[in-house]
Amino acid sequence: MSKLIVVLGATGTQGGSVVNTFLDTPGWKIRAVTRNANSAAAQGLKSKGVHEVVTATLHDVSSLTEAFKGAHTVFSVTDFWGLYYDPGNTEKAAASGLPKNVWASRVEEQQGKNVFDAAANTDGLQRLIFSGLSNASKWSRGKYTHVYHFDSKARAAEYGQATYPELWAKTSVLQVGFYLSNLLTAPFMRPQKDENGIYVFSYNFPMTVKLPLIATEEDTGPFTRALVEAAPGKNLIAYRAWMTMDEYLQIVCAVKGVKAVNQNVPLDASSGSLPEELVAELADNAGYFEEFGYEGRDDPTLVHPRDVSATCAV
Ligand SMILES: NC(=O)c1ccc[n+]([C@@H]2O[C@H](COP(=O)([O-])OP(=O)(O)OC[C@H]3O[C@@H](n4cnc5c(N)ncnc54)[C@H](OP(=O)(O)O)[C@@H]3O)[C@@H](O)[C@H]2O)c1
C-alpha cells in the first residue's frame, strides 16, 4: 500500500520541490493542494505524474480537513509575500487599520493555525512537516519585533504545540534557509553590472554574517523526506551551505568567470520601490540575522542537516 503525502503550495517553490522528491520516492502517492485545480500550474502537476490535484484554501479549515483525508504526511507552507503583494488584499488590509505587512502576518498566522486545526482532525496522520521560521521577537528578547514574516510562522507553530500535544508529537518544523533565488527575485538585491563590467551585489546586512543558504527548489523536497524518515519532533534549519555573502560571491566569480563585489547598502524608501513598512521589517530582519541568527541560534531545539540521519541530496 502506498502512503499518501498531501502537499500544500504544490504549485510553488517549496511545495513543488516536495512534489518532485516524492514523485521519485517509491511507495508514495501525492495529493497536491491548490486554490485552483484548473490552473496551468495545477495541470502541469497532473502531467508530470501527481496522482491527485485538489482544490482547497488555507483560509478555510473545512477545505483543508477534506484535502488531508487519508494522509500519512502533510507538508504545509504558508505564503506571507503572496498575501502582502496581492493588490486584491490592499483594501482588506486598509480596512483592518493595520500596515499591510502586519495584516499579512496576522492572516498568515491564522492560515498556519488552520493547518494545525485540520491536521489534528486527520485520522491516521503520521507526520506533519510545517514550514516555519524562527520567532525573531522571542529570540532577540524583544529587540527585533518587526520581522513579521518570521514571527507569524513561529506563532502558528507555537499554537500547534500548545493546542494539540498529540499532533505536535508527530510534527517536525522545517525552517527553510535564505533562498539563493532572492538574489534574482528581490529587486533590491539583484546584481547590477557597472560601467567596468563588474557585478555589484547589494544587501542590507553585513557581508560577514553567515547565513543558511538554500537552493529551495532543489533542496526543500530532500529535507522534507529526511524529516519524514526521521523521528518526529525536529526543528530543522535547512540549508545547502552555511556561509557569508563574501564567501558565496567568491564561488560565483570562480564558477561564472566574472568579477563581482558585494556592498552593504541600507534600505531606502525614498525611491518608492520599497514601502516604508518593509524598510522597517527588512532592517530588523538584517539586525536579527546578524545578532541572533536567521534560525534564532539560542533556540535549544534547533537541529542542523548533519543531525538528520536520513539520505539527503545536499
Ligand atoms: N525567500 C526566502 O528566503 C524564504 C526563506 C524561508 C521561507 N520563506 C517563506 O516561503 C513562503 C513562500 O513559499 P514559496 O516560496 O514556496 O511560495 P511560492 O513559490 O510563491 O508559492 C506559493 C504557494 O502557496 C500557495 N498558496 C498561496 N495562498 C494559498 C492559499 N490561501 N491556500 C492554499 N494555497 C495557497 C500557492 O498555490 P496556488 O496559487 O496554486 O493556490 C503556491 O503554490 C513565504 O511565506 C516566505 O516567507 C521564504
TrEMBL record:
Keyword tRNA processing in record: no
GO CC terms: nucleus
Domain annotation NmrA-like: ranges: 1-296
UniProt KW Transferase keyword: no
Pfam family, one: NmrA
CDD domains noted in UniProt: NmrA_like_SDR_a
One GO molecular-function entry: oxidoreductase activity
Keywords, in A-Z order: NADP, Oxidoreductase
InterPro entries assigned to the protein according to its UniProt record, in alphabetical order: NAD(P)-bd_dom_sf (IPR036291), NmrA-like (IPR008030), NmrA-like_oxidored (IPR051164)
The family this protein is said to belong to: Belongs to the NmrA-type oxidoreductase family.
Name this protein carries in UniProt: NmrA-like domain-containing protein
